Amino acid sequence: MVNKLDFDTNNTSYVLTSADIQRLQAARNQDGTSIFMNEDKNVQLLEEALNNAQSDDGVILNAWDSFKGKVGIGTSSEKCDEIIEKYKNGEVTFEEAMNEIDNYDNKQDSSLNLFSNIVTGIAAIGAVAAVTALTGGAALPILAAVGIGAGAGAVTKTAFKFTDRATNDVEGDALDAKQMAQDALSGAVTGGIAAATTGTGQGVFNAQREAGLSRHILNGAARSAKTGMKTGAIACGANYAIDCAFEEDKKFNTGEFARVVLEGSAVGAAVGAIMGGVNGGLRHEGILCASDSNVAANSASSASYKIVNDRIRNIAA
To answer: Which of 193, 227, 241, 273 could cross-link 293 (Cys pair, CB 3.0–4.6 Å)?
Structure first.
């Protein structure tokens, strides 16, 4: 979400993005003075940009922002307030302050997607497990598992993000049909990926139960890196295509799509290896019973798209 500010000049309304504001603010007359605004107006625009960013946040993102502010991690509204004060004191430029606010806005948006993807993956796994229990514990055909997971994922992600939009300060944002359709498709992808990997790797684990701890960690990391590589690529590629289909300012580009898939694959493999290694070690100690690959799939597909999408947003900004 890029901040947009409304203002009136001679009874004519204009909408400027933060990038427009920065270009105009940097423009100078021959005597070196700004052609656009004075310092008081700059402060007003920074405060309005922060207010606009915060108005998009509902109960979930407000809680996350509060947590970041108290713990002192990431970019929070508290840090944005601090950067505005620094601008007033001449410690940072207008561009630096506006970039911090834009970064906060984008990070909040991507965090909501990350949280919703994690919850969606868990819900999909739970749905498949519930159906499996009802059928007497027999393994479901892969297509049936994917269908159940996709359905659960679509409902869960739509409901999760609806909850945040319904509690923000943007009028009419809750029942945005286009956004709900986008969330449903994205949730179906995440849920389908999670369901497809439910239980994979279990036979390998059982066969090597007597192996040592280090062997379990390495095997878990190796298996899950492969799974994460696949799920990261699928999640990033599918979600990129969905975003391009629903977002007016985002056009599909074959080169960018290929880069997104490759980056998603790399990030997914790394996340999968870490999660698989940790899970493999814990399972050796009898702490976890979920499959390494399943944990890796959900973690990799969620984390990879957040990381790759953050990179795309930073380039666009």
So the answer is: 227
- Shared domain for 52 and 196, answered yes or no, is no
The residue from 103, 131, 162 where one domain ends is 103
> In whole angstroms, what is the distance from residue 30 CA to residue 51 CA?
34
Burial degree of 311 (CB within 10 A; 0-12, 13-18, 19+): middle
SS3 208: coil
Contact present, 94 and 25 (Cβ < 8 Å): yes
Domain that holds residue 61: 4-103
Q: Which of 55, 86, 103 is the last residue of a domain?
A: 103
At 303, the pLDDT band (50, 70, 90 cuts) reads low
Cα 189 to Cα 160: distance, rounded to the nearest angstrom: 15
62 plus 182 within the same structural domain: no
- Which tens digit of pLDDT belongs to each residue from 46-82? 999 999 999 999 999 999 999 999 988 888 999 999 9
For the stretch 128-167, pLDDT in tens is: 888 888 888 777 788 888 999 999 999 999 999 999 999 9
Please give the tally of structural domains in the chain: 2
Instruction: Compute how many other C-beta atoms are within 10 angstroms of the C-beta atom of residue 304.
Output: 31
User: Quick one: the chain helix, strand, coil %, rounded to 5?
Assistant: 75, 5, 20
Whole-model pTM: value is 0.71
